Amino acid sequence: MQGLSLNRTGRRAVVAIACLFFCFTSPQNSQAWGRNGHRLVVNKAIETLPERLPQGFREFFEANRGFLLQHVTDPLDAISKTPAERRNHFILLEKYGRFPFEALPRDYKSAVTKFTKAKLDANGLLPWQIGVYSKKLTELSAQPGVNERFGTALIDRYSSFFPMRPNDAIFINDPTDRAFEACLSSHSWLENILLADRHARHGENSFNDDYYDRFYNQAAAILIRQLSDAATDVGSFWFTAWKNAGSPQLPH
Fold this sequence. Notes:
This protein is mainly alpha-helical. It has one domain: P1 Nuclease, CATH 1.10.575. The protein is built from 12 helices and no strands. The protein has helices at residues 8-22, 35-47, 57-63, 65-71, 74-81, 108-115, 117-123, 126-138, 146-158, 175-187, 190-201, 209-244. α1 (8-22) runs antiparallel to α8 and α9 (146-158) packs across α12 (209-244). The longest helix is centred in the C-terminal third of the chain and has 36 residues, at 209-244. It is globular.
């Protein structure tokens, strides 16, 4: 199978949008999903794309499924080589007041004017970075390890039981604004995830099978919903970029 028939910037944008979107659903400010989670969502994202378009849009992604599954975690590897890249993969919303964080402008230039570039860099650039890559395609808690347990271990242990049903991809009018909405939606589940973790740990001295069974029973609905939403959003960003580019015929 051949790789994506795009230039370097295009290939990077396709993969980066998929990778960055997983970070929205993180219960903390670290990387959201493990590598298997990334591949699971990308695999489902392809299924959200419209079928039977004359330009072969979905067929292009179907033909390059293997490439996407192989490279969707490349941006995570880049973080280890270039630590400054990490700021593009998270945002600390709590640094901007209380939910729904209306004090933070969604326009990047307005946010820089209000808070300074240094503060934005320190607190993460995730939603704005999603907007950047979309355009390129067109041309806290005291519960250490909960992110890894929720976003990696639960997926590795139970993904064969996930009834993921993502919605069809849709056109996104404002990619950056949609990225902020995804961040807010993710943040709204934070306390539920942390509470499920605390309940699952009750009476346990280690993160054993009993702990994970209880954690999954309490948090599975959130996890499956977030994975499904992530797949829908990834597909929607791909679809939006293609439409904004004039719905071109894609290479085979």
